[in-house]
Write a structure and sequence with these properties.
Helix content: 40-55%
Radius of gyration: 45 Å
Largest sheet: 6 strands, mixed
CATH architecture of the largest domain: 2-Layer Sandwich
Strand order of the largest sheet: 5-7-8-6-9-10
CATH class of the largest domain: Alpha Beta
Structural class: alpha+beta
Strand content: 15-25%
Mean pLDDT: 78
CATH topology of the largest domain: Alpha-Beta Plaits
Number of helices: 11
């Protein structure tokens, strides 16, 4: 839209900045002079007259020549501003001996004056070549009353058309680039091997939620579930037992929360959650229930959460925070406090109450 409007505005400005020009034209008959002597002159004159078409074209070319234009400017003492946009043209009307001379200038009176001088210079230059011809005035040069059409309407119309095309083309290119960028992001946002959302996607969605929350004043919860007491191989990957626990927890979370909730592979041993429109206590209870479900299905009948197999940090966002970095700092602090020995494995931080919450067993 902006490109369209800009193109139209530029076209309108350009059209109205075009100079106002006037055109004066007159016609002459190219005819042999009446005083042709007998003898050799008569023979030469007859030969010259037989080449009428060639001579007519020569007169037209002379009228349009740079030499005639420079002579006219010098004879009339025209300034640079007076010769700006000056155009001189000569043409013969097909099938006749009629020469038309036209002059375009910025001033109507000047156009008439220049046209008359062009006719004189044309006749003078032509006689040096063909001394048996002269120009007889047919239609005298008249002062133009109206300027010539500068095609301002056409320029503005074309500006509208090309502006529309440029606007549509720009939108298409932007959308195409966005699609490509989204495609590239999808590779970064989803782990190709596991199919899980990545930390990059979690951060991306968090920035969106912060922006939406600041505009619409709604709340959301963030959580990190960290797997404790795990071991890793030489490549830094979780051992089989820890990896299975991690994957089981991820799938339980994915199946227990809504499609719009973000469950992401936050780190090697940590799962990140972003839950819009869910208060902190509800988020805590939901996660507790999921962990208890996993523990009851495992061979170990004791509660893994309270045996410090997991540390759960939750931040409930109800008021405005400075940004992503501050929220992630609070979230890391919450999961750290949840992993302390005296902790029951879960820590909920809210805007109103920053103290640790202890779930009932």
């Amino acid at each position: 839209m902006i490109i369209w409007v800009t193109t139209i505005v530029i076209s309108v400005i350009y059209a109205f900045l075009l100079p106002t020009l006037y055109r004066s034209h007159g016609t002459f008959i190219i005819r042999p002079i009446s005083s042709i002597k007998l003898g050799e002159d008569l023979v030469n004159a007859i030969d010259t007259l037989s080449r009428r078409v060639e001579i007519n074209s020569t007169f037209a070319e002379i009228a349009s020549s740079r030499n005639v234009k420079e002579s006219v400017i010098e004879n009339l003492g025209l300034s640079a501003s007076e010769t700006k946009n000056l155009k001189i043209a000569g043409k013969t009307i097909p099938g006749t001996n009629v020469l038309e001379i036209s002059v375009i200038a910025r001033d109507p009176d000047l156009a008439v004056t220049i046209a008359g001088e062009v006719a004189k210079e044309t006749l003078f230059s032509a006689r040096e070549i063909y001394d048996v011809f002269e120009l007889e005035l047919l239609d005298d040069f008249e002062k133009p009353n109206n300027p010539i059409d500068s095609n301002k309407g056409i320029i503005i119309f074309l500006g509208v058309i090309f502006g529309f095309i440029a606007g549509v083309g720009t939108v298409f290119i932007i959308e195409f680039i966005n699609i490509q960028l989204i495609g590239n992001h999808s590779v970064q946002f989803v782990d190709r091997q596991t199919g899980k959302y990545t930390r990059s996607y979690f951060d991306h969605r968090l920035v969106q939620e912060i922006s939406r929350s600041n505009r619409n004043k709604y709340r959301y919860s963030l959580a990190l579930i960290r797997l404790l007491n795990h071991s890793a191989d030489e490549e830094g990957k979780l051992d089989q037992y820890s990896s299975e626990n991690y994957d089981t927890m991820y799938q339980l979370l994915r199946s227990s929360f809504r499609e719009e909730d973000v469950i992401a592979q936050y780190d090697l041993d940590t799962i990140g959650l972003l839950i819009p429109d869910l208060v902190g206590d509800e988020t805590k209870n939901r996660i507790e229930s999921i962990i208890n479900e996993q523990c009851s299905d495992s061979e170990n009948e004791t509660n893994d959460l309270y045996n410090n197999d997991y540390a759960v940090g939750i931040v409930f966002v109800e008021n405005h925070y400075k940004g992503k970095d501050e929220l992630l700092r609070l979230l890391s602090q919450a999961v750290f406090l949840a992993s302390e020995e005296e902790s029951d494995g879960i820590y909920l931080r809210t805007d109103k109450d920053n103290s640790r919450t202890t779930p009932g067993r």
